[in-house]
């Protein structure tokens, strides 16, 4: 049985991959046609072209693919490039192939329908990430977060039950931002909560958890009382942190509210209203840096990235990198390209600061926010008085891995690899 989350990752827009357990368990209508270098397998929902060498290379028997490590054992390079099966047939359980040396390979229809090549482009399902990047996400505006407050998640629930943890990660994946309430207002408790999610990312700011006030302990605007426009952190890293967590531990003063904006939602608005600007911010690479502290001079490799980063295979937007404060000198653009870039930047910033897109939260002590730093921009209003925020950065891959393993069964894991 495929879980709710599995059927979610199989969905992309209105297109749905055939769910094997439902479609093929009693199927008798599979037919095979053999050709010179490949076979065509016709299943009720689609026909798949399966090249022989590819089939042999992807044999999933325990000799060819370690069932526990899920790594290839077959030696691709000793297989004859012109290999052809000596026998093929299919039944209810799938496609069966016998190779000239007697080796047998079995391919379930679920696996074939997940990975087999289809002429029609119906196949372009973003199962690669097991959660279709933009179609299953809830793109939001401020009113969506205000009017539809999700069931409250509490520290106790998240710390003590797998269900609570799963709910938390699910919200993070769907909305890109999630709140946990009733957290004890200490750095220690916040760290426990953080480590429940995943291990932390060390940076030049700290070894793990950080805790900051307006004292310029590090030479960065975050350590002042100034307002911060909506931005993502770490635009100067080759790989920006995947998640960021904030917990306001102490506050005596005025202002200092937190701002969140759904970067994917605003990107979509820009694409619709000003496709030329969207294209410019997809193509124009922007150099960035972090260099306030004496012993720090960080720039990414490659030296610059666009604001909108797309998966080259699917075209899906997967990462927004934007911090106007951390932009380096634009020295690589001729005047006409500079003009196009600045115009596009103004259009992006206009939408980012549209009150309809700005979700403001006073983030009272006890309420921890965690957000996807590749999607949701954050900021704050200026403040007076004393304010201490603690939190952490998390690596992207490890956060996503945690989320995936909570949402997928072992069988589903096999299916998507
Ligand atoms: C979160 N912490 C207070 C540790 C650092 C804030 C750094 C903000 C910085 N300009 C950047 O984009 O990284
Ligand atoms: O002070 C805040 O509320 C957030 C500052 C900030 O942007 C950061 O620490 O990354
Ligand atoms: Fe920040």
Written description of the protein model:
This protein is of the alpha+beta class. It has two domains: 107 residues, 2-Layer Sandwich (NE0471 N-terminal domain-like); 265 residues, 4-Layer Sandwich (Double-stranded beta-helix). 28% of the residues lie in helices and 22% in strands. The protein is built from 13 helices and 22 strands. A five-stranded antiparallel beta sheet has the order 10-20-13-22-11. Strands 3-4-5-9 form a four-stranded antiparallel beta sheet. A hairpin with a 3-residue loop joins strand 3 and strand 4. Helix 7 packs across helix 12. The N terminus is likely disordered. Bound molecules: N-trimethyllysine, 2-oxoglutaric acid and fe (ii) ion. Fe (ii) ion binds next to loops.
Give a quick precis of the structure.
This protein is of the alpha+beta class and 417 residues long. The protein has 13 helices and 22 strands. The site of 2-oxoglutaric acid has 7 residues, from strand 21.
CATH second-level architecture of the largest domain: 4-Layer Sandwich
Per CATH, the superfamily of the largest domain is: Clavaminate synthase-like
Q: How many domains?
A: 2
Q: Using DSSP, what is the number of strands?
A: 22
Shape, per Cα inertia axes = globular
Beta content comes to: 15-25%
Main-sheet strand order equals 10-20-13-22-11
- Derived structural class: alpha+beta
Radius of gyration from the CA trace?
25 Å
Number of helices: 13
- For the termini, the CA-CA separation is 18 Å
Percent of residues in helices comes to 25-40%
Question: What is the fold named in CATH at topology level of the largest domain?
Answer: Double-stranded beta-helix
Query: Tell me, what is the CATH class of the largest domain?
Result: Alpha Beta
Query: Regions with pLDDT < 50 over 5+ consecutive residues?
Result: 1-27
How would a crystallographer describe the biggest sheet?
Answer: 5 strands, antiparallel
Bound molecules: N-trimethyllysine, 2-oxoglutaric acid, fe (ii) ion
Q: What's the mean pLDDT score?
A: 90
């Amino acid at each position: 049985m495929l879980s709710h989350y599995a059927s979610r990752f199989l969905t992309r827009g209105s297109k749905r991959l055939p769910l094997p357990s439902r479609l093929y368990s009693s199927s008798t209508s599979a037919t095979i046609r053999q050709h010179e270098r490949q076979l065509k397998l016709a299943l009720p929902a689609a026909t798949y072209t399966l090249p022989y060498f590819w089939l042999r290379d992807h044999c999933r028997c325990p000799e060819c693919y370690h069932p526990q490590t899920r790594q290839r054992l077959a030696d691709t390079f000793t297989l004859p490039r012109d290999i052809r099966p000596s026998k093929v047939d299919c039944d209810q359980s799938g496609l069966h192939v016998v190779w000239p040396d007697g080796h047998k390979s079995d391919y379930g229809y679920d696996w074939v329908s997940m990975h087999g090549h289809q002429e029609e482009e119906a196949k372009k399902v973003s199962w690669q990430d097991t959660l279709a990047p933009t179609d299953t996400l809830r793109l939001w505006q401020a009113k969506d977060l205000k009017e539809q407050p999700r069931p409250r998640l509490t520290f106790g629930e998240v710390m003590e039950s797998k269900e609570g943890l799963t709910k938390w990660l699910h919200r993070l994946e769907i909305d890109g931002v999630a709140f946990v309430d009733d957290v004890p207002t200490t750095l220690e408790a916040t760290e426990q909560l953080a480590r429940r999610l995943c291990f932390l990312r060390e940076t030049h700011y700290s070894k793990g958890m950080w805790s900051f006030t307006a004292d310029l302990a590090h030479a960065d605007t975050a350590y002042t009382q100034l307002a911060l426009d909506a931005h993502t952190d770490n635009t100067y890293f080759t790989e920006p942190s995947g998640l960021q967590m904030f917990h306001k531990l102490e506050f005596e003063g005025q202002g200092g509210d937190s701002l969140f904006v759904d970067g994917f939602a605003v990107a979509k608005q820009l694409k619709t209203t000003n496709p030329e600007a969207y294209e410019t911010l997809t193509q124009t690479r922007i150099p960035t840096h972090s260099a306030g502290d004496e012993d720090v001079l960080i720039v990414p490799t490659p030296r610059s990235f666009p604001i909108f980063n797309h998966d080259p295979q699917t075209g899906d937007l997967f990462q927004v990198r934007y911090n106007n404060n951390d932009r380096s000198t634009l020295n690589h653009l001729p005047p006409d390209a500079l003009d196009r870039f600045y115009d596009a930047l103004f259009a992006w910033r206009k939408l980012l600061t549209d009150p309809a897109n700005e979700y403001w939260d006073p983030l009272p002590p006890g309420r921890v926010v965690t957000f996807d730093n590749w999607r949701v921009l954050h900021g704050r209003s200026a403040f007076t008085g004393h304010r201490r925020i603690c939190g952490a950065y998390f690596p992207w891959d490890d956060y996503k891995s945690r989320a995936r393993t909570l949402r997928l069964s072992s069988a589903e894991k096999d299916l998507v690899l």
